[in-house]
């Protein structure tokens, strides 16, 4: 409690860091097991989010997961370090959890095991690679050998989600057996998708569907649920496409160095909004000499549908033109959304807050665009303190603004979420994503203004 009775802003501390990024890099592999070397307090949130993003069981019964390291959760077994382990080392607990995981690997169909140190565990100094050698790489029983495994002893401490995600993903790609480099024409890998993104699964499907209309095949999207078998085909792609540079630039550089795969970063950011998705299709088709016409036709059909609703809505209420919006997101997402909302819908930026994931190129593009439309102050305004009609961000930011008593419509575009059950699959990407966001905005404005 601050002086004068004003409470501290606890929501600002709920920010995914490099440990979260590393854990979800491994959890984003469809047949991988993530072992957390750390206290139980570092486990529960990450395990719950992973299980909710990738549903593997029809029910949820904690009694099905009674293994000593699972604590009633299906994902991310943990060594549950305590004070004694920080003094005498965690070797005994590491050996036990490695053996237990390996014994259940066949039943649970693990094809990769990743061991991630919590920041505190990284200070102990245990030789995790030695334990992996003796218990997983070279166990006494020959039938247990052969599962690729790796350890990440330092995720970056207080670095951002993107730093930890890319560190772990590069470790994964170094560890997995890969096919020989044999580039197939008109094929791509999609880089920067993670299971910690809102609607990641349908975003991935949407991109694949649009690229298929262009005759382009997606080989893999590391971190978005693909299995180790699919990831082994990464060297077969003709091109790497960076969807989110905040989570993929280092991965793209690694793949270029290791396998000679060239890469492109999207000029208009992730494919959010009609103009951005059209630019996405055209840029990739130019790079691969593919035909974009079928995909463009699909986008234009959705744009025509949007026009019908926009025209009627605008003639009755004069909106959404002139309505205010605020954004809290990555720099690339903030740029794509801001440009679309301003140029397509005629909305006005009230406040834009880039979270810890900042790409310098898109941060500068966003600044330049705001200067061009004479709203540079939006980057300096607080998302929480500035009145707005529409807020696009994570659930915690939306809840924080609601606690301020403001009247607005919150649209979740990122995690953490407020708990809404998304039974119907939704997407933020492509023409269908544009229609979904437009639906949310128009319906939200009806109750705000």
TrEMBL record:
**What start-end ranges are recorded for coiled-coil regions in this protein?**
none
- Which residue intervals define the domain Nitrogenase/oxidoreductase component in the entry? 20-445
Q: Name one GO molecular function term.
A: oxidoreductase activity
Please give the InterPro entries that the UniProt record associates with this protein: Nase/OxRdtase_comp1 (IPR000510), NifE-like (IPR049939)
Q: Entry's Pfam families?
A: Oxidored_nitro
Indicate what this protein is called per its UniProt record. Answer: Oxidoreductase/nitrogenase, component 1
């Amino acid at each position: 409690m601050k002086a004068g009775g004003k409470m501290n802003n606890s929501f600002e501390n709920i920010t995914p860091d490099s440990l979260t990024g590393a854990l979800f890099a491994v959890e984003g592999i469809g047949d991988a097991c993530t072992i957390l070397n750390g206290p139980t307090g570092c486990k529960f949130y990450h395990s719950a989010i992973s299980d909710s993003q990738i549903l593997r069981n029809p029910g949820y019964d904690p009694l099905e997961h009674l293994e000593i390291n699972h604590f009633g959760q299906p994902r991310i077994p943990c060594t549950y370090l305590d004070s004694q382990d920080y003094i005498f080392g965690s070797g005994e607990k590491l050996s036990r959890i490695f053996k237990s995981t390996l014994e259940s690997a066949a039943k649970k169909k693990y094809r990769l095991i990743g061991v991630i140190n919590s920041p505190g565990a990284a200070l102990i100094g245990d030789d995790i690679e030695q334990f992996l050698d003796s218990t997983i790489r070279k166990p006494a029983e020959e039938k247990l050998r052969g599962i690729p495994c790796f350890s990440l002893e330092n995720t970056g401490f207080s670095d951002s989600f993107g730093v930890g995600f890319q560190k772990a993903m590069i470790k994964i790609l170094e560890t997995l057996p890969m096919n020989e480099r044999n580039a197939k024409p008109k094929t791509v890998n999609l880089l920067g998708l993670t299971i910690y993104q809102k609607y990641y699964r349908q975003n991935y499907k949407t991109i694949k569907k649009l690229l298929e209309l262009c005759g382009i095949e997606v080989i893999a999207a590391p971190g978005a649920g693909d299995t180790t078998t699919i990831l082994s085909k990464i060297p077969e792609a003709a091109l790497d496409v960076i969807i989110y540079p905040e989570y993929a630039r280092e991965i793209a550089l690694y793949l270029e160095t290791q396998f000679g795969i060239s890469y492109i970063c999207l000029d208009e950011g992730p494919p959010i909004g009609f103009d951005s998705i059209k630019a996405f299709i055209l840029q990739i088709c130019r790079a691969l000499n593919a035909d974009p016409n079928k995909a463009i036709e699909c986008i234009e059909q959705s744009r025509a549908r949007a026009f019908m609703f926009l025209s009627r809505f605008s003639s009755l209420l004069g909106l959404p033109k002139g309505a205010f919006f605020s954004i809290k997101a990555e720099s690339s997402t903030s740029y794509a959304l801001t440009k679309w909302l301003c140029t397509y819908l005629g909305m006005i930026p009230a406040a834009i807050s880039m979270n810890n994931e900042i790409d310098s190129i898109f941060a500068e593009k966003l600044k330049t665009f705001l200067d061009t439309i004479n709203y540079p102050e939006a980057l300096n305004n607080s998302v929480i303190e500035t009145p707005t009609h529409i807020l696009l961000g994570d659930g915690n930011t939306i809840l924080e603004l609601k606690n301020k008593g403001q009247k607005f419509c919150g649209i979740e575009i990122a995690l953490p979420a407020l708990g809404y059950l998304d039974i119907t699959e939704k997407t933020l990407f492509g023409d269908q994503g544009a229609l979904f966001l437009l639906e949310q905005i128009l319906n939200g404005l009806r109750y705000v203004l």
